Amino acid sequence: MNHIKLLFFATIRDRAGTKSLEIDIPVDLTILGLKEKLSTDYPNLKDSMKSVLITINREYAFDDAVVPSNAEVALFPPVSGG
Description:
82 residues, alpha+beta, Ubiquitin-like (UB roll), 5-stranded mixed β-sheet, globular
């Protein structure tokens, strides 16, 4: 198992009910797998996982990226503006 820290921002923080969590994840879990795990373990986050922006150690990550041990994973809602 790998230990990671999750950081939640804006509306995702509101849905999570906290600004951060520390969890254990399987080795070689991808971002897509992490989104599926969060959707299952934290149902309030399920709708957010469809359009969430994710960084691993402050670098944007795509669904196929593997989450390393001791990573800081931040979840942001989509950015919009006008």
